[in-house]
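Q: Two folds, back to back.
A: First:
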Amino acid sequence: MVTVLALSAALAYGVADFLGGTVTRRATAIRALTWCVPIGLAVVLVSALLSGGSPSTGPMTWGLVAGISGGAGLITFYRALARGPMSVVAPVSALAAAVLPVGVGIAEGERLDASVLVGVLLCLVAIALVSMEADDPARAAAPRADGWRRLLDSGPVMAGVSGICFGVFFVLLKEAGDGSGLWPIVGARLGNLVIVIAALLFLAFRGGDKGPRVSGRTLIGLALLSGSLDAGANVLYFLAVHDGMLSLAAVLTSLYPAITVLLARVAYSERLRTVQRVGMAIAVAGVALVTVG
């Protein structure tokens, strides 16, 4: 069951990212998030009310911290894309997000069967390969600082930080437990909202340009659908990680870039690079081994 739930979460995350990316082509990430995050909060709040359970301080706090970490990871990821080549940033972030939960799971005593372990390792390789996209010189046009500041603000380092934030999100939702129903996910979405509000206040204080607004029924509809699917993916991952092992659920969920890449291929006729095709094949093999195991 954990395999079905985690792969369903990957599907939902992948579609949500594709729709969110479509919105940011005409607006900006922060503008898109101001639509996606509130609707996502509404979706999980209704789901929590309908599924039973009651909010309690402990699980809600775990969820809140998880959401803050996930939101910080998203902001950091976009900053990484502005500082370094996408072909490096995306796979570094995706791998860090997947490897951290695996390490935590193993440290907590999780043991995978041989075939499942091989499948997980193949999925990790697939995540890196599928995430490799062509470089965009415009993304690296931002001014650079010198010395250690330049190193810490570089694309690969920021990508690693974003991946760690995403990995922490996966781990903390496991630690939240499932005794309070879906309320930890409500806490997580509140954490996302805190990060978005903080980013908006920061831009307002710095006088930064938030970019063009999300306008028009179609674009707003895509933003709302993206936020709803992302919230649904949170719920599916939460159910998956509490139905099985953290290491397995996190790795399978982290295959979502494959869905985004495939949708971009269909919608925008974007050609898959050879390395991405190889990654897709490896992902299929990895999922097959995990399923059989």
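A: Second:
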Amino acid sequence: MEKKRVAIIGAGSSGLCSIKCCLEEGLEPVCFESSDDIGGLWRFKENPEEGRASIYKSVIINTSKEMMCFSDFLIPDDFPNFMHNSKIMDYFRMYAKKFDLLKYIRFKTKVCSITKHSDFSTSGQWDVTTESDGKQESSVFDAVLVCTGHHTNAHLPLDSFPDFL
């Protein structure tokens, strides 16, 4: 039997965990990351990219390392209890290396669209169109996990407030 293919959008903390969980379940994950690195929001950039949330240089996490760590990979004892964003990135890199996750990530690949496959009602599959180096590619997946976070695009449920339209 063929492994079920799972598209994962985003290689931040949720995307990394999703790759690992898919592998543990015998699934075939393919993670699409529009940037050139893991970390999502936690990756500080002096000049933030268009359409990407960014932290500021001095951000220190407001929860303890014991509360924010992955249950299957503890943060090293020598890391401070309340970590600077650079230490969080170090931790994510250690996690990705420990579980060999980077080989499942397609960096600099933007997801352009996700639509129901022509036989979705029977297969439950999705068509995922991506773009990398100016070339578009479409692939079929059995599932899609959206791990893009919620800090980039505002959620404006204007249809819930018809008087304001």
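Q: And?
A: Helices lie at 13-24, 65-68, 85-98, 120-123.
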